[in-house]
Design a protein that fits this description.
about 70% helix, about 150 residues, two-stranded antiparallel ribbon, elongated, homodimer, transmembrane helix (chains A, B), mainly alpha
């Protein structure tokens, strides 16, 4: 961290950008289709895991912004390392939960009697997939931030 | 880590025990009910997230056993810190994915047309819930291991 502050700052900027992108793409996931006289709506907040995903990535984006202003040495920097790890775990949970439901939406589960829904609302599913990809990139960048800190400070 | 090796070893033992327990409880989650002439079966491997949960916790348990034999100083101990973090993230993903599907099984989702299944197979759902609780304890212990290392070594 102290060795290469510019690379590290860039890594944080990229993680923040990816987190904002993931939150925005998830938050704009919706589709309305009309089938004869039946109107079918799909909103991201219909699925609790997708709402959790948006909140988690919004927290990560806000935290990333704050962390940019913390000096790389001193007591506060130790807290940043701990929070980096907690944010990485939060994002892992968000991607995993949203990913599990997204997979269900695409494939369904015949044993549980849950039908796939992505054929009915393909735009919605693609939008969620975009959020997941952006979220996975942010998560990877966060993992790199934590691993970089561990490898240079420990 | 070097300051209190016994406490740390105990923490690892507890994490390993909780991980084994989570994997075993998930792996034994099944129920068969007969409704008139219709037989309904529920197995953990019917849900991909539950299979992922079992594999993740089996990996964590195996890794925890190996990590017990790694000395607390030296190059190998640095790798253990990195693997501890990766295992904590793996367990977070496992709990989140299985938790999301488990929540769906209990509550269903009317928007997606996914009905709750726990009223039909309550024993199965309770078993999965047991695995999730044990898994959450193992995850908490892993987070403590990583935070302990960060706070003592950084």
């Amino acid at each position: 961290m102290a060795k290469s502050p510019w690379t590290f700052t860039l890594l944080r900027f990229m993680a923040m950008a990816a987190a904002i992108s993931a939150a925005v793409v998830m938050g704009t996931s919706h589709e309305t289709i009309t089938f004869f006289s039946v109107t079918l709506k799909a909103e991201f907040y219909y699925i609790p895991s997708f709402t959790f995903f948006l909140i988690a990535y919004a927290i990560a984006a806000g935290y990333s912004l704050l962390a940019l202003f913390v000096p790389t040495t001193g007591l506060l920097s130790r807290w940043v390392v701990i929070f980096d790890m907690l944010v990485a775990m939060l994002l892992t949970a968000a991607v995993a939960a949203a990913g599990a439901i997204s997979h269900l939406g695409k494939k369904g589960n015949e044993h549980a009697g849950w039908l796939p829904i992505c054929k009915q609302v393909p735009k919605y599913c693609n939008h969620v997939m975009g959020a997941l990809i952006s979220g996975a990139i942010a998560l990877l960048l966060y993992a790199m931030i934590v691993l970089h800190t561990i490898s240079t400070k420990l």
